[in-house]
Design goal:
alpha/beta; 9 helices; 43% helix
């Protein structure tokens, strides 16, 4: 199995060519996101020129929007499709209806989608995710457990059943370290967050093991740290307390080091 590390366009500036060149030169295997103003043909050529894979994101509160966005994004021929799915305020019946329709759209398109464990969405808690994964055996997730750390406001070690099932169903990892009071530590290399880093890496390794058991060709990982307001800032100046590019590079190097046998 091969580790593929992506860099999100979130928080990056510049024209598409400049951003892709910077990402490729930094040693990333792929990019997450689609710049505005480029046709699928144009963007696919740019990605080929830089030797980069692509991950794309859907943002859909209802199944109709999900199906429409999925159809359009498939034209880019992404390696990974991630979805911010539904709303946290939906009932379980409404959530099941959303996912059933989404899975139907996926089946017709012939693609897999990782539905993200994201605040504000259907999979915003471990217990809700456990419910949906039990109800829908073919549902896959995009694992971003930084949100669960924040929503639970604790290390969610009392949610082992949910974590185990989620790790077994994860098709992609958003490798961001969260903490009790937020979805993003300022700098995951800081010693004060060593226990948070270790907890997240334990979950990511469980996902890797599930991939290996399934005979997957690769595992994909995006160190998806974001700019302010995700990145904490100094009062009055709104200056970020850490450099986003440096944080993402450190996180990419970290996963390659701990998984050096497949990097």
């Amino acid at each position: 199995m091969k580790l593929l590390v992506f860099r999100s366009l979130w928080g990056m500036d510049g024209d598409p060519e400049t951003m892709l060149r910077r990402i490729a030169d930094a040693g990333f295997d792929g990019v997450e996101g689609v710049p505005a103003g480029l046709t699928p043909v144009q963007y696919k050529k740019m990605l080929r020129d830089h030797g980069l894979h692509l991950a794309v994101c859907i943002y859909a509160s209802d199944a109709e929007a999900f199906g429409s966005q999925l159809q359009k994004l498939c034209e880019y021929e992404p390696l990974r499709i991630i979805s911010h799915s539904g709303r946290d305020a939906m009932t379980h019946d409404e959530g099941c209806a959303f996912f059933e329709q989404a899975l139907s759209h996926q089946s017709k398109a012939g693609v897999e989608v990782g539905h993200e464990t994201h605040r504000g969405r259907l999979l915003y808690t471990p217990w809700d995710t456990l419910y949906y994964l039990r109800q829908l055996p073919t549902l896959k997730i995009n694992a971003d457990f930084s949100h669960w750390m924040n929503v639970c406001e604790r290390f969610p070690n009392d949610q082992n059943e949910a974590l185990e099932l989620a790790c077994s169903r994860a098709m992609n990892i958003h490798g961001r370290v969260g903490y009790e009071e937020g979805p993003q530590v300022p700098d995951p290399s800081a010693p004060e967050y060593r226990y948070h880093l270790k907890w997240h890496e334990t979950q990511w390794t469980a996902i890797r093991k599930a991939h290996e058991q399934a005979g997957c060709e690769y595992i994909t990982f995006t160190p998806e740290y974001g700019p302010p307001p995700y990145m904490p800032t100094m009062p009055h100046t709104n200056a970020p307390v850490a450099d986003l590019w440096t944080v993402c590079l450190w996180a990419a190097a970290r996963i390659r080091e701990i998984w050096r046998d497949i990097a």
